[in-house]
Write a structure and sequence with these properties.
125 residues, mainly alpha, MetI-like fold
Length: 125
């Protein structure tokens, strides 16, 4: 599912690169660098979506993993509230906040790339 979404994002952005821009790039390395600057925000979004998809995976990890040592964060957190009479909502909430920290750090690191992708199409000229 994520690969199809990534393919559609990349297929959508490449036609937006203007053909007249080829005249400014004289060598192949310059063309590659030129396209990389235009496509970098889309690649950052694809990376973020793939990270969040694998980090928060629940269904596939619940089905495939049998050893509790190898559970993902989402499956491990479900153990706190999965029992009928032993639901520990306080520990679950604390674990969910701690589990969100890597995603927030990744968003903070890639913030400039995501913002440049949002504002790139806003300039008309």
């Amino acid at each position: 599912m994520l690969a199809a979404c990534a393919l559609l994002l990349v297929a959508y952005i490449y036609p937006g690169v203007q053909v007249q821009s080829y005249g400014s790039a004289l060598i192949a390395a310059a063309v590659i660098a030129f396209f990389n600057t235009l496509v970098r925000p889309v690649l950052a979004v694809i990376f973020m979506l793939s990270f969040i998809g694998t980090y928060g995976d629940y269904m596939l990890a619940k089905i495939m993993l049998s050893n509790t040592q190898k559970y993902t964060v989402a499956v491990g957190l479900s153990l706190f509230i999965g029992q009928q009479y032993g639901q520990r909502w306080g520990e679950f909430a604390a674990g969910a906040i701690l589990a969100a920290i890597p995603t927030m750090i990744l968003f903070y690191i890639s913030q400039s790339q995501l913002q440049s992708g949002l504002t790139a199409g806003a300039v008309k000229g």
